[in-house]
Amino acid sequence: MHSLFLVFVLVAAVTPIPLSPTPAKAHTVAQSFPGDGFLCALTESYAPKFAQSIPLAESATAARRNLALFRNATLSLNLTHPVRFLDDSRGFLYPVFDQKRCQLGKDANKIIPFLPSNTLGTYFENLFQMIPTWVNGEISLSRFDLFHGHLFANPSTNTVGVVFHSQEYPAENSDTFPFNLGFCQRNSNVTFADDVMRKRNIVWTIDSNDHTSLWRINMAIRTGDNAVDEILGGEPFYTLYEGSLGHVVADLYYLNGLELGVSLY
Ligand SMILES: *[C@@H]1O[C@H](CO)[C@@H](O)[C@H](O)[C@H]1NC(C)=O
Ligand SMILES: *[C@@H]1O[C@H](CO)[C@@H](O)[C@H](O)[C@H]1NC(C)=O
Ligand SMILES: *[C@@H]1O[C@H](CO)[C@@H](O)[C@H](O)[C@H]1NC(C)=O
């Protein structure tokens, strides 16, 4: 009896120590995200069924190099090195609306513009500006519609991207959109339309070859590929969640008339 108890104590004391530890391997295996298959389908297919390609102009050599550095820094979740990307000295508070009850940013901290020298601020501002033009005005730059994007880093594909969310605050409507989204929705001039809402997510990516692309996602499509389909759907909001595509690194905010600013997580 006494010796059995002793054996039990010894086993219990030893059990927490793994018999064959594998911590070294864990470091080399990239973390997987539900959206890995979705990103592979985007970057490997010329015309994926669930996305429409928005043509991007060829960037200048210097801009391409900065984007490549930016991809690496984002993948290492490190946006301030090896080049400094952001200009801390010019941080500013994002505007609030409806007697300060509507705060569009993720927190009350200052948002930080990019350093003018790396031209990334201009690059992302241009993306924001080309989206409404490309969709023939179905989306506009405004605090009710397109004003932000989420920067993510996907380690298994070494892809970095931004999920732009448009149609953020459609007006409440008892028939078509009976949802109260809080103070930021008040006075919204965005009329809910399911055929626009389902295409409200725009995804920019820079892949492992530093190739950039921009896509308008149709969330209402079913592809038959489970890895892709689990990212789609979600009516009537049709939100493509950046956290399903990778580590969420920062938010980008852009309202016409203001410089684009970054809010790090
Ligand atoms: C980004 O990282 C990869 C892999 O570590 C490296 O080969 C490449 O040179 C880096 N690119 C830049 C622009 O630093
Ligand atoms: C960011 O990169 C710099 C330079 O490579 C390094 O010194 C620093 O430790 C890195 N920070 C993080 C959080 O990885
Ligand atoms: C909708 O509201 C935004 C923000 O107040 C404004 O900038 C925009 O001009 C309005 N759009 C229309 C079509 O009235």
TrEMBL record:
Signal peptide as annotated in the record: 1-16
Source organism per UniProt: Arthrobotrys musiformis
Phylogenetic placement of the source organism: Eukaryota, Fungi, Dikarya, Ascomycota, Pezizomycotina
Keyword annotations from UniProtKB, A to Z: Signal
The protein's name in its UniProt record: Uncharacterized protein
